[in-house]
Amino acid sequence: MKRKSKTQAQLKKELDKVFSLYIRTTHSDENGNNTCYTCGKAGTIKTMQCGHFVSRQYLATRWHLDNCRIQCAGCNIFGNGKPLDFEERLKKELGDEYVEEMKASRHQSLKLDRHWYQEQIEHYKKLLTPYP
Fold it and tell me: How far apart are CA 101 and CA 44, in angstroms?
């Protein structure tokens, strides 16, 4: 029996999940501990979220590594991502010009197909898999 292919919407959701785990993992210590990028609250990979500086609605920056950092639910959801604090910290980390270019790039038009999503999912899964 042939398995039904995932829809593009299902692949997008799967990529969001694996990308979020990648961001939370790479910005944590070896024990999974981390702090919120915008308020400094301590947390873990399981308790924190993948916060986006430029809103997730913009596909051009949705999975951009420099657009995402760990945030607590208070900042990410209830504080709407704390965009001013996020921007201030990003500019210190990456430079004003780079952050402005990233903001401007959000309007790039992308044609993402199922193949692209599948490639990205596999890419981040490989990065998350410890070496044997």
Answer: 31
